[in-house]
Write a structure and sequence with these properties.
- This protein is an alpha/beta fold.
- It has a domain of about 40 residues: Monooxygenase (Up-down Bundle).
- It is built from twelve helices and 13 strands.
- The strands form three sheets. It has an eight-stranded parallel β-sheet with strand order 1-4-5-6-7-8-10-13, with no helix packed on it.
- The longest helix is centred in the first third of the chain and has 18 residues.
- The radius of gyration is 23 Å and the shape is elongated.
- InterPro entries: F-box-like_dom_sf, F-box_dom, LRR_dom_sf.
- It comes from Raphanus sativus (Radish).
Length: about 300
Amino acid sequence: MEEGYESRRGSRWEELDTDILVRIFQKFSIFELTSGLAHVCSGWRAACCDPILWKTLDLSHMRSSFIKIPLEPYVYVERRSDEALTRILKLSMNLSGGNTRALVFHFNLFLSDDQLTYTAERCPGLRRVVLPAWNRIKKTGICKAIRIWKDLESLTMPSIANPPYLLTEIAKNCKNFKELKIMGPFEIFFANTLITYLPNLKTLSLRCSAIKREALIKILDGLPDLEVLNISHSYLVEYSVWQPQQKVIVRELDKTILEKASRLKRFLTCMEHQTCVMCQRTENDEGIVRWYKYEEGEWKVDEVSSLHL
């Protein structure tokens, strides 16, 4: 009797409708999907490879095990941690079949150039990339990835000192690019580079940052197609006329900025430094928010719905 039961049970698993399995697997994390489910049987393998499961590859809960070091790249990632990420990426790429359209990494997940290139080559159709940590990614690595991602529309990235090399590649290769989120201080040089290379940008998020007032004005004047601008929980910085080296923090938007921003469809602001916890955190961290100190997942938040994770 037990033998007959085992036979019937095995038959049911083999014949279970793939659509039902896919709906079940949609509730699983990336770690569960790559834990060996595809090896159970051919039916499970087919379900594990369904494009719906891989539309977004979300590694926002995976962190590198690392220590800080005084020289570039300023972090040392432990070998086992690196190997774990490589394993997850290889398994995911094998199952996804190039169907991933959004790729999300944690702000403390430090990819190497090799890992980024491997992923980019197997996800050529990406439209959205959330990549907040670039410590181990070199100029050649990110530029190679951008050349592959011809359909890229949205990028979340850290603030970088030399943006022209990146924005040049985006302008040349990503004709549908329209949305940018920068995590970190926003300087005049970055604003000028955006205006030069991405004048058709539609959405820009600079939340939780120290923003040079002149940079904000340049953006409002120089990006005619900009529709949505988010500066929530940020503060403005300008320098004293009498003491050029003295930084002045501006906690209110003046009439000039408000008038220039009135043309936007959405201008998202919050500068309530007396009552807003996130505004206080940004100022206390001097415009470079130490996300690791705060609630897990807080870094994913954005007032722009298309950027919220």
